[in-house]
Task: inverse folding
């Protein structure tokens, strides 16, 4: 499994994963494939263009022709491609279904046709819904939002391709991830970059939603372990350490502290409809294969704040020059005042 097709490779986790693999496995060849939606960004590859083991192609995973052309020359597909933002999927569920479900079907068909050694689907803890306990892999899928429902649909088709056609699939369900190259519409990068510019930090509802935060490198390591050591047909939770559970409002205040900014920047806004209260996962199954995520959330958060402070050109190009960013933010937050 040395020739990998990484779909959604120009996004946040995908680009971190491509970099991680090229560094860890010098004899692997990686093709990143990405539609370059508003979230896909070639700047995420700035340090990779000279690597002879790296190639990039633009296209959509729903396009069977281009997918087949790439898939016939690789050993495995790892699918990161998705419309990944809950808020956008509420405004436009159909686009989420196209990428998060239809596209997965096209990739699976290619994996079946070309007899791939693995198909890894990057999924999310959000397919479980909300919990006061912890999610385990065999538990029910009760997605509450268009994003997570479309992701759950994609996962179920992965299962069907494993059972029906024997495609050697793996599903990973990741928890909320943060770190460098995270598109600045999501909580942590939005709040860091707004705080740097003394702009309001829009906190949904009472800010008491709980997330189990995982640093992006840990997410990449978890996917790597599941990909290489996981059992085909299985699902693996890839979560942050339980000690990294935080209320959103506490993460917000911590960001302000690191940037030496006042809490008066916090603006409570109308909550997102269907917003899950808490996610938490039992990762015993992946830990048994060696997964051991960071326990010091604050250390990684501070590093991330520093990365955004030192890489202003990366996010200012998005926030100040990308028309789509401003159009979405204006529309979404105008409705939440
Ligand atoms: P992201 O939005 O930063 O990246 C998604 C990438 O997919 C973008 O580069 C985009 O251009 C591309 N893309 C979207 N639709 C496509 C299509 N139809 N064809 C080809 N490319 C397409 O998202 P991310 O945060 O990096 O998430 C990556 C994956 O991880 C997603 O599948 C997401 O569901 C999952 N995940 C994310 C988190 C998180 O906290 N960010 C947690 C768990 C799971």
Result:
């Amino acid at each position: 499994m040395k020739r990998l097709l990484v779909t959604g490779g120009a996004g946040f986790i995908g680009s971190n994963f491509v970099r991680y693999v090229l560094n860890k496995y010098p004899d692997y060849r990686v093709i990143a494939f990405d539609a370059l939606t508003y979230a896909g960004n070639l700047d995420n590859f700035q340090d990779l263009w000279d690597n002879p083991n790296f190639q990039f192609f633009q296209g959509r995973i729903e396009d069977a022709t281009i997918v087949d052309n790439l898939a016939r020359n690789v050993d495995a597909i790892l699918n990161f491609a998705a419309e990944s933002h809950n808020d956008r999927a509420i405004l436009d569920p159909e686009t989420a279904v196209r990428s998060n479900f239809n596209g997965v079907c096209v990739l699976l068909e290619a994996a079946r046709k070309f007899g791939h050694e693995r198909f890894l689907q990057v999924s999310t803890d959000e397919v479980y819904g909300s919990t006061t306990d912890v999610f385990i892999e065999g538990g029910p899928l009760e997605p509450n939002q268009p994003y997570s429902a479309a992701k759950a649909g994609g996962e179920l088709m992965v299962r069907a391709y494993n059972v029906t056609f024997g495609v050697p699939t793996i599903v990973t369900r990741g928890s909320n991830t943060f770190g460098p190259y995270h598109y600045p519409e999501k909580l942590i990068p939005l709040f860091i970059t707004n705080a740097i510019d003394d702009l309001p930090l829009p906190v949904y509802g009472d800010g008491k939603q709980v997330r189990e935060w995982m640093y992006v490198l840990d997410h990449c390591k978890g996917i790597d372990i599941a990909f290489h050591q996981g059992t085909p047909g299985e699902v693996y939770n890839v979560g942050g350490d339980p000690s990294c559970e935080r209320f959103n409002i506490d993460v917000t205040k911590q960001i302000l502290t690191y940037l030496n900014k006042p809490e008066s920047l916090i603006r409570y806004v109308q909550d997102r409809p269907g917003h899950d209260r808490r996610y938490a996962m039992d990762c015993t199954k992946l830990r048994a294969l060696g997964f051991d995520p960071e326990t010091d959330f604050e250390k990684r958060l501070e590093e991330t704040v520093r990365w955004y402070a030192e890489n202003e050109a990366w996010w200012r190009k998005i926030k100040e020059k990308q028309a789509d960013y401003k159009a979405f933010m204006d529309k979404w937050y105008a409705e939440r005042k």
User: Anything to note?
Assistant: Residues 3-177+215-238 form a domain with the Rossmann fold fold (CATH 3.40.50.720). The pocket of nicotinamide-adenine-dinucleotide is lined by residues 7-8, 10-14, 34-37, 39-40, 60-62, 80-84, 99, 103, 122, 124, 151, 174, 176-177, 183 (CB under 6 Å). The CA atoms of residues 5 and 179 lie 23 Å apart.
